[in-house]
Amino acid sequence: MAINDKHIDAILETYPAKVKRNRKKHILIKDSAQAHQEIEANTRTIPGIITNRGCAYAGCKGVVLGPIKDMVHITHGPIGCGYYSWLTRRNKAKTPEGGQNFLSYCVSTDMQESDIVFGGEKKLARMIDEVMDIFKPNAVTVSATCPVGLIGDDIGAVAKAAQEKHGIPVLSFNCEGYKGVSQSAGHHIANNGIMDKIIGQGELIETPACYSINFLGEYNIGGDSWEIHRVLEDIGYHVVSVLTGDGSYETIKNAHVADLNLVQCHRSINYIADMLEKKYGTPWLKVNFIGVTSTIESLRNMALYFGDKDLIRRTEEVIARELARIEPVLDQYKKICEGKTAFCFVGGSRGHHYQGLFAELGIETVLAGYEFAHRDDYEGREVIPAIKTDADSKNIPDLHVEPDRKYFKLKLSPEKAEELKKRIPLSNYPGMIANMKDGHIITDDLNHYETEEFIKLLKPDIFASGIKDKFIPQKMGIPSKQLHSYDYSGPYAGFGGAVKFAEDIAMAFTSPTWNFISTPWKDKPLLEGAMQKEGH
Amino acid sequence: MERQTGFARNAAENPCNMCMPMGGIIPFKGVEKSMVILHGSQGCATYMRRHMAEHFNEPIDVASSSLNEKGTIYGGEKNLKLGLDNLIKLYNPGVIGILTTCLAETIGEDIDRIASEYLLDRGLNDVSLVTVPVPGYGGSHSEGYWMATRSIIARLSREAPANRRINVIVPHISPADIREIKRILQLMRIEYTIFPDFSDTLDSPFTMPYKKIPIGGTGIEEIAEMSGAAATIQMGVTASREISPGHYLQDTYGVPLYNMPIPIGLENTDKLFAVLKQVTGKDMPESIFSERGRLLDGMVDSHKYNAAGRSAIFGDPELVLAIAGVCRENGITPVVVATGSKSFMAAEAIKSSAAVDVPEQSLLAGTDFARIREHCREKSVNIAIGHSDGRYLTEKEGIPLVRVGFPIHDRMGGQRLLSVGYTGTMTFLDRITNTLLEEKHKNYRHGIFDKFYTGKMA
Ligand code: SF4
Ligand code: SF4
Fold first, then answer.
1. Quick check: is A417 catalytic?
2. Mind listing the pLDDT tens digit for each residue in A423-477?
3. What is the layout of strands, in order, in the sheet containing A238-244?
4. Number of C-alpha atoms within 13 angstroms, CB side, residue B350?
5. pTM
6. Is residue B154 over pLDDT 90?
7. Which one of A23, A76, A89, A352 is the catalytic residue?
8. Distance, CA A179 to ligand 2 centroid (Å)?
9. Separation of B414 CA from ligand 1 center, angstroms?
10. In three state form, how does the secondary structure of A360-425 look?
11. Measured between alpha carbons, how far is A68 from A219 in angstroms, rounded to an integer?
C-alpha cells in the first residue's frame, strides 16, 4: 500500500492541534525525488505522551559509563534511579585474570529526605570511602540524579577531594535527569568526562602492535562485541580498547595510541570520536557490524584504511571462510522470512543498523525510527552545521580539545584522508534516511499511541523495539523482537550473530503459538472447507 | 536474637527496594479506566514502566510531565497541565493519578493546587484527578503503594448509604492472588469490593482488538461506596496508620476495620475465614474445607524435607511477614528476615509478630543485599525466598531462590504466581519444598559418602 500524507494526518488528527503540528515534523515518508528531507529530532518530548525516551542519567550512567567493568559506578541520589539502572541492559563482561569486574553491583547513596534538606555531599564522601574500602576499584564514577543538581551538591568538589585522599581517579558527572531532552544529553556528558579524565592517562606512548583500533559505541549486549572481536583478531587487528562494552579503565586510558577508531553507535559516542581526531590525530570510521553485508563492508573499509596488501588478503580470506560457513544456514531461515515486513524503532543507531540484516532475510523495513537520535543520525553529518542548538542542548557544555602536545600524531596525510573519504565513511556518517526505500516511513520519538496506529495502518509482520513497547504489538497478534537487550538472546552482531538473529526471527514466525491467534487483517474463516461441504 | 533496624553504612549496595512512585503506580492500575502521570523528568516514568513491563509482560502506559531544566527553575505547572490535556485526549481516562517524583518534590510543586485549578480551568467533570505526593527519597515502593491506595479512596469515596458489601483491601500481591481471593469470596456468595483490583489489567487475557486502557479494575462507583460498607478487611498490618487506607475508611466513615496479614499459610488463611465469619456470619464452604484438608495433608507429606530449611526472606514487608509464617508452620527456620523498607511501622510489625520470633534470627529493615548476603553466610541459609534480585545470593553464595513477589524479571510468570488461600499456599509450599529437595539431591550422594564413608565431613 502506498502511504501518503493523508494517512499520516489521519493518525495525527486525534492530537490537540499544537501537538499535531509538532509531531508532524517528526514523521517523514521517504521520497528520493526531493533533494533533501528534513526531520525534527532531539527536541523536547511532549508531556503526557507515552514516549519511550529516558533521561540524561540513563544515557550517562546507564549506557556509556555502566559497562566499564573495573570502575565502581556510584549513583548519587535517591534509591530509585540507581536501582532501575542496575544491570538492565545485558552488557556482558568477562573478568580478566587478576582483574576487576563490578558490573553486578548497584551502588547508590540512597538519599533520604534529610539529605535533600541538608545536602548530600558528606554522605557521598563517606560513601566513596566505603567503596574504596570494600571494592578497592581502579577508579570510581559518581553520577548525579535529578535532586542533586537542584539542592546544589557540588559533586565535582567531593570527587576531587576523594581522588586526592585515595589516590585513584574519581570522576563526577552532572547528568541530572532533567538535562537535555533524553538519554542523548547523558551520552554527551559521559563522553566529555571519559575524554577529559580517562583517555590519555595511560602509560603507552605508541601502539604496541600494528593495525591497532579502538572500538567505540559498542556495548557488548548479549555478547555482540565478542563475536566481532573474534573476527577482528583473526584478521590481525589489535583492539586497544572498547568503549564501553566489556571495557575497562585500564584499557580505555590508553585509547590515545590506536591507529583508527571504529564507530558502531554514532549517536552515543560521536563526541569522543570527534575529539580523538582533534586531540590525537586519529580518524574514525563508521562501521556497522549488524548484518552480513554491512559487516563485510566494514571489514573491507578497515582494510582499505590501512591499505596493506596482506591485511586486505587476510580480510578476504576470513570473509570467504565465514560466508561459506553461514550462508547455507541463513538460506534456510530466509525461506521462512522472505516477503515479510518489519518496523524497526530502537534507540539511536539500531533503528538503522538492523535494516540491512532484515533485508538479508528478505524482510523489508517499512517503518524505522530512533528514540533519542539527532538530525545527523537521520540525515547525515553534513547537516550538523545547520542544526540550531536550543536551550536544552546548550546546557551540556562542549568540551574544547586541542592537539595534544605529547601524543598528537597525524595517522593519515590530509591528501590520503581526502582520497579515502571518497570511498569509505571516514569521519562521516550518512545517516538512516539515505538507506531507506521510497514510500517507507521514518519517525522520531514514536509513542505508544502512534505505535498502535502505525501497526493498524501498515500491518507489519514483526516489530523490532524495546521492552516497553514490545507488548503492544504482541497484544495485537504480531511478534516482537526486543532490540535493546535482545529478549535474553544474542549475540546478533557479526557473522555468527546474523545466524543467531535469523534463527530467532524465523522462530518468531514459525512458532505454532501464532496459529491460535488470528490477527484481524489475516482473518480467514477456519472452517471454510467443512462449511461448504455441509452446504452442498 | 539479632535485630538490626538502623542503617550504619552510607552505601546502599545492591538495593532491596525501589522508590515510592513505583509502588504508587500499581494501585492506579487496579482502578477502572485509570491512567497515571508522573510529575518530574521523564526518566523516572520510563524506568518504572520498563520494570513493570518486564514483570507483568503487559504494556504499561504511564505518562510523564517531561520536565526539563527550564521547568526546574520556573516550575512545572505548564508541563503538567499540557501533559494532562494530551493524556485525556488520547486515553480518555475516568481517573488520573498525578504522582510526584523527587524532582517535583524538591522544587516544591503544589500538585493539589495545580490539579484543582486544572479541572476548573478546563471545565472538566468527567475525570477525577487523584494527587499523591511520593518523592522517591521519601520511602520505598512499599509505602508508595499504600499511600496511593489510601489517596485514591480518600479522593473518590464519598458519604454513601450503608450497604451489605465488605471492602477487601489488598497489598501488592500477584494478579493471580487477587483472582484467588475473589474466587473465595464468590464461592461464599459474599458481596464485596476488592481494591485495588489489578488482576485483569496487569495480567490481561489475550483478546482482540487491543485496548489502550486494559479492561478491569475496581469500578469508580464501587470505590466511591466503600464508605458505606459493612466492614473493611485489609491485608496490611505493616502499613502505618497515616498511610493505611483501611484506617482512613474507619476514621472518616466509621467502617469497622479488620486488619490482617496476607492469607498465605494455614494460620493466616484460617484468620481470613474467621474474619469473614465474624463479618458475614458465613461458614467456610465444604469445598474450601477440603482445600484446607489437602493443604494439611501436603504439609504432613513434606514436613521432613522442610525441616532442613534455613530460609532468608526478603521483599515487601507485608509479604515477608506472611512468608515467615509459612516457613514457621512448616519447620523451615526463617533465620534472615529482611526488607528494604525503612518504615518504622513495617519493622515493628515484623518484629512483634510471633510468627518470626526465632532464636538467633537476623531481622533487617532498610537493608540492602550486601547485608542480607553477610547474614545469609553467618546463619548458614540454604534457601532464599523473595523477588528476582535475590538471584545475587544464588550467584555469589550458591543459595537457591524461590521467586515470589515483585519484581520477577528473570523468569516468566511473576504475575501468575499463586500463593494465597489454602490452595495457593500449597502450590507455594511445594515450590519451596521442591527447591530444598533439588538442592539436597544435587549434593546428596557426594555428601553422604563423605560424611559416613570417608569421614571427611565432620
Ligand atoms: S528515586 Fe526519585 S528520581 Fe529516582 S526514579 Fe525514583 S522518583 Fe525518580
Ligand atoms: S529523571 Fe531524574 S530522578 Fe528520574 S530516573 Fe532520571 S535521574 Fe532519576
1. no
2. 999 999 999 999 999 999 999 999 999 999 999 999 999 999 988 999 999 999 9
3. A238-244, A212-218, A260-263, A284-286
4. 33
5. 0.94
6. yes
7. A89
8. 10
9. 24
10. HCCCEEEEEEECCCCHHHHHCHHHHHHCCCCHHHHCCCCCCCCCCCCCCCCCCCHHHHHHHHCCCC
11. 9
Judge whether B17-139 and B286-447 match in fold. Answer: yes
Q: What angle do CA A311, A314, A317 make, to 5 degrees?
A: 155
Q: Which residues of B touch A13 (CB under 8 A)?
A: none
Active site residue A106: no
* C-alpha radius of gyration, chain A, whole number: 24
Sequence-distant (≥ 6) Cβ neighbours of residue A508 within 8 angstroms: A462, A479, A480, A481
Active site residue A175: no
- Rounded to whole angstroms, the Cα distance separating A309 from A293 reads 22
Chain A partners of B107 at a C-beta cutoff of 8 Å?
150
The number of angstroms, rounded, from the C-alpha of A317 to the middle of its chain's C-alpha atoms is 30
Distance of CA B296 from the midpoint of ligand 1 (Å): 44
| Residues in contact with A522: Cβ distance below 8 Å, sequence separation at least 6, in sequence order | none
- The residue type of B126 is D
pLDDT for residue B7: 41
d(CA B433, CA B329): 13
ipTM: 0.93
Please tell me the distance from the alpha carbon of residue A191 to that of residue B161, in angstroms, as a whole number.
63
CATH code where residue A103 lies: 3.40.50.1980
State whether the beta carbon of B43 lies less than 6 angstroms from ligand 2. yes
Q: Which three cell numbers stand for residue B97?
A: 493519578
Q: Between A48, A107, A130, which is nearest B84 by CB?
A: A48
pLDDT of residue B303: 96
Residues A21-59 pLDDT 10s: 999 999 999 999 999 999 999 999 999 999 999 999 999
Cβ of residue B44 lying under 6 Å from some atom of ligand 2: yes
Sign of CA dihedral B170, B175, B181, B183: positive
Chain B, nearest residue to A181 by Cα: B68
The CATH superfamily of B17-139 is Nitrogenase molybdenum iron protein domain (3.40.50.1980)
Nearest-5° Cα angle at B271, B270 to B275: 120
Q: Using the atom order of ligand 2, give the atom closest to the CA of residue B43.
A: 1
Residue B441: band (very low, low, confident or very high) from pLDDT cuts 50, 70, 90: confident
Cβ within 8 Å of B, A 144-203: 145-147, 149-151, 177-182
**A518, three cell numbers:** 488470528
Residue of A58, A448, A467 lying closest to B43 (CB–CB):
A58
Q: What's the rounded Cα separation, in Å, for the pair A393 and A412?
A: 32
**Amino acid letter, A89:** R
**Bond from prior residue into A137 cis (ω within 30 degrees of 0):** no
What element of type H or E holds A124? helix A121-135
And the C-alpha cell for B31? 482502578
Q: What's the domain count of chain A?
A: 1
- The answer to the question of residue A492 being in a domain is no
Q: CB–CB of A499/A327 below 8 Å?
A: no
What are the residue ranges spanned by the domains of chain B? 17-139, 166-280, 286-447
Ligand nearest to the CA of B17: 1
Closest CA to A389 of A91, A143, A185: A185
What angle in degrees, to the nearest 10, is found between the helix axes of A155-166 and A121-135?
30
Ligand 2 pocket mutation, candidates A74, A146, A184, criterion most atoms within 8 A of CB: A146
Q: What kind of architecture, by CATH, is found in domain B286-447?
A: 3-Layer(aba) Sandwich (3.40)
Class of domain B166-280: alpha beta
Contact between B383 and B308 under an 8 Å Cβ cutoff? The reply is: no
Host H or E run for residue A345: strand A341-346
A55 catalytic, yes or no?
yes
Instruction: Say if residues A364 and A342 touch (Cβ distance below 8 Å).
Output: yes
